[in-house]
Every structure is written in structure tokens, then in C-alpha cells.
Fold this sequence. Notes:
The protein folds into two domains: 2-48 and 363-377, no CATH class; 52-348, Alpha-Beta Barrel (TIM Barrel). It is an alpha/beta fold. 54% of the residues are buried. The chain has helices at residues 37-40, 71-82, 98-113, 117-120, 151-157, 176-184, 198-207, 228-235, 252-262, 312-323, 327-341; strands at 2-12, 15-25, 28-34, 44-50, 52-57, 59-60, 63-64, 86-94, 125-129, 164-169, 188-191, 211-212, 240-243, 267-269, 283-286, 289-294, 297-299, 359-362, 368-373, 376-377. 28% of the residues lie in helices and 27% in strands.
Amino acid sequence: MISTLTVEAVLLPNGWAQNQTIVTNDGVITDIREASKAECEHVLKGRLLPGFFDTQVNGGGGILFNDKPSVTHIETMALAHLRYGTTAMLPTIITDNADTMAAAADAVAEVMASGVASVKAIVKGVHFEGPFLSRAKKGVHDERFIRPPSDAEIATITRKDIGRVLITVAPEAIDVGFIKEMVSEGVVVSLGHTNATFDEVQLAIDAGATGFTHLYNAMSALTSREPGAVGAALLNTQTYCGFIIDHFHLHPRSAELALKVKGEKRAMLVTDAMAHAGSDLTTIPFFNTEIVREGDKLTTPDGTLAGSCLDMHSALVNAIDGCNVTLEQASLMASTTPAHFMGVENEIGSIALGRNADFVLVDQRNQLKQVWSKMRVVF
């Protein structure tokens, strides 16, 4: 089905273009051209950006993916985040048992194979955040499930029917051979929940790790005598870093500094969203504790940060308003850069020929006005 959309300003890969008509066929962009005089009479006011890609979504809409991984739960999560501009996501399983990991893979595979069409367009794969992590930097992850990889878990992670796979590991908790094996299987390896030294992190990067999960948080810090994981992440120009910019996980100036060092082509906005996102929930059970929302902050009763209730549009606005980032830079970090990180840049992440017609429209104050998923208006 051929459709057109004429917009006042469109952010293209080479910059802004005014009064553009976007032509799509079955939700894929086939042409971008200057609007005709007649089309300009019905131009949509605002600034059109690529839809957001969140690589770390633990939950949303009242659902935590770990609780009961299923197509229905993925659908609930996806639709909860979609209204905030997340047109692509990786449902994320927090450290858990092998059965839960397998169930998550089964659910994602079912979505990828058929599932609800609107959700299939959003889900690009799965993120296993653990369980091969550091106990010293476990954060909210349940220590009972932190362990070395087994053959069964490797088989789950390397399945070929679950889209793009991202796994977060602590380099000191696994052998570099494991990283090489994962990369050879097409898995994207990110480093996080780690107390590794700079040298240990560098060996993991040399083995093929390309990302850092929620930079600064739950990782060895940069100090004068030991650069740690943070120092390794900032020093390496080829690796990608996720940032939870909710102003609880990161001081705005710490975020601003790291964003300047990494640049918008290597920095990514993520939510690390829990079930609270897109819902009115204040408290949810979480393994042998609970996660409580106070304002926009999520913690366990002992005060440990436990993910966020952040959405991607808020992350974009927070980066702009709090970290001296431009709209253009924030858009790259929310869309284009994560698409490159996960190797799906030919499908999503920019407004260009051959890409999905996934868009968000913001006004001059960056307030969200509309969202499209494959040219279907969803908000």
C-alpha cells in the first residue's frame, strides 16, 4: 500500500530538510522529495525524527519480562513504549534461571515468526542482561542466579530465530574465548555489571566486545591509578555505550562529559525500563524483594537503584535539557547509533530510502506530537 506524508521539517541523515514529502510502500520508505505546492497546503507542522530504538527494555505497561516471558507480555511492553516513540526495542531478561532465559527466547522467536504484526515490527531481538556477571557489581540482579555459562544457555543465546541478540557479561566472570564464540555466532557482546580492571576489559574488547551497558552504573570506576571499565569505555573510540539519562543513574555533568568523549555516533540512550514505565504501578515484586517507585525513581527497600520508569522520549528531552546535547545529537543517540550497534541500520534508525517508516514528530519545544510505526499512526 502506497502512502505519503508531508512534513514541515524532516531530519535526514545529512541534516534538516524543509517541506518534504515521504512516500512509502507497505511501511517502507521509497521516496523522499520536496513537497509540491498542493502538498504544502496540507503540511504537518513540526519536526520529524526517526523512531527510537531502545536496546534495554526490562518491562513496561505493568509487565516485567522476567515474570512470565510470553508473546502477550512482549506485546504489552512494546505497546506501552510505542506511545513514547520507541518503534524498535530489545525485550530484556535480567539475570534469571536457564528456564526463564529459554522461555524468553521462545517468546521472541514466536513474535519474530508471526505474532501480532504491529509488535513484530517493533521487536528486533532480545537482550540477555546476565547471568554471567560480577557479584561485586550485581546491582539489583539476584546473586543466586549469577553463574558461568552452560551449554544449554549458550544454545539459547545463539539461536538463529530470535532476531538480533545482545548479551551483557562481566569480562572477569567469563573466558575471552566465550566472547569470541558469541561474536562468531553473531551475538553482540556488551560489558556491564563488572568490577574488571582496565586490562581485563581491554582483553574483552580485543576478543570482540563492542558495547558497555549503562555506562558508569554497576562497573569499576575511573580512578587515578586504575582506569577501570569506565576508563576503558571512554578511551576506546570504536565501542558503544548505553546511558540511562533519568538524572538518577547519572549526574548530568557526568553524563555530559562522557557524551562529549564518546560522541553521538557511539553513545546510545536507553531506558532500562521496568514494569512501572507506561503504567500507574508504584510497587512490584522482584525475586525476593520489591521495587518501589517514588516520583520517577525506582529502588528496592534498601535504596538500590532498580532500573527506571524512563521512556525514550523523556530520555531524549533529558539529554537535551540536562546534558547540553542538541536535538540532532539526541536523535542520533536514540535511533541511528543503536541501529548501527545492533547491525540493523539498513532497516531502521534513519529517515532514508529502504528504511522502515518509523517516525516521531516533535514540536519546537520537543514535546511529542505523533508516532508512526511502519507508516501506521500509533499515537
